[in-house]
Specification:
This protein has a four-stranded mixed β-sheet. It is an alpha/beta fold and 90 residues long. The protein has two helices and four strands; from the N terminus they run E-H-E-E-H-E.
Length: 90
């Protein structure tokens, strides 16, 4: 069984951090939903923008959350990206 989490929000949840600024998180208990299939977790988890450029998809808080949750509870974690950066709160 896997605990699944919707990653909702704006750019902070979508992830805008630059690749390589933090160490990549690899945990076999952590998956992400991409193209309708569960895949091993890797950045960017929420590809709502292009990968390179001024406003780009990048590193966010989802991977560190999933990693810590999986370690603490010893459970599989599934991340479902739904964030959309640059949208209004309303």
């Amino acid at each position: 069984m896997m605990k699944s989490f919707l990653m909702l929000g704006q750019s902070n949840m979508a992830g805008r951090g630059d690749f390589g600024e933090v160490e990549e998180i690899k945990n076999p208990l952590c998956k992400m939903l991409r193209n309708g299939r569960w895949q091993p977790m890797s950045e960017p988890i929420n590809p709502d923008r292009q990968i390179w450029g001024k406003f780009h998809s990048g590193v966010g808080l989802a991977a560190s959350f999933a990693d810590e949750y999986a370690k603490h509870f010893n459970e599989k974690v599934g991340l479902i990206p739904c964030a959309d950066g640059g949208t209004s709160i309303s």
